[in-house]
Amino acid sequence: MTEIIAGFGIENLNLGMSIEQIVNNWGEPEEISSYDDETIYYVWYQKGICCCFSKEHLIEGIFFYTGLPGGFIENGNFPYKAFKTNIQNGISMESTEFEIRSILGKPTAEGVIDFAEIPYIWLSYNGLGFDIVMDSKKIFCISVGKFQ
């Protein structure tokens, strides 16, 4: 099983790849959206992934979903299936907030999104992010990017 690596991604899905490369590796996305003139999102709900592309059409961020509902829900539906993988340092998609903090220590940044339909906290560790449901303390999304 391929591991998610901070600031990189996984073997055939990593930061800096082009839209063409990703579509060749993963097939046509189920949805393409844009929230501004700079960023394009390609979504594969059934595979549990979403890629954020720059205006140059290169991956800036990758989101891997655990299949658990969290964050912002459209029409009461959380459409992402689970992406099956592990994360570097022995963290799994089923790890809890306590386990993440125990293994990785103090995050470089963290925050609370309490206005979402399913409120969550986010933890950032130099290119590796975790979105964790506040009530269950379980991960619903793991992100990889060039963030702190």
Descriptive notes:
By secondary structure, the protein is mainly beta. The chain has one domain (3-145). It is built from two helices and 13 strands; from the N terminus they run E-E-E-H-E-E-E-E-E-E-H-E-E-E-E. An eight-stranded antiparallel sheet has the order 4-5-6-7-13-12-11-10, with no helix packed on it. It has a three-stranded mixed sheet with strand order 1-8-9. A two-stranded antiparallel ribbon has the order 2-3. A hairpin with a 3-residue loop joins strand 11 and strand 12. The longest helix has 8 residues, at 19-26. It starts with a strand and ends with a strand.
Summarize the structure.
This protein is mostly beta strands and 148 residues long.
The residue fraction in helices comes out at 10-25%
Radius of gyration: 15 Å
Q: How much of the polypeptide forms β-strand, as a percent range?
A: 35-45%
**Number of helical segments with 4 or more residues:** 2
N- to C-terminal distance = 26 Å
The SSE order reads EEEHEEEEEEHEEEE
- What is the overall shape? globular
Low-confidence stretches: none
Query: How many distinct domains?
Result: 1
| Spatial ordering of strands, largest sheet | 4-5-6-7-13-12-11-10
Structural class: mainly beta
Summarize the main sheet.
8 strands, antiparallel
Number of strands: 13
Would you tell me the overall average pLDDT? 91
**Assembly type:** single chain
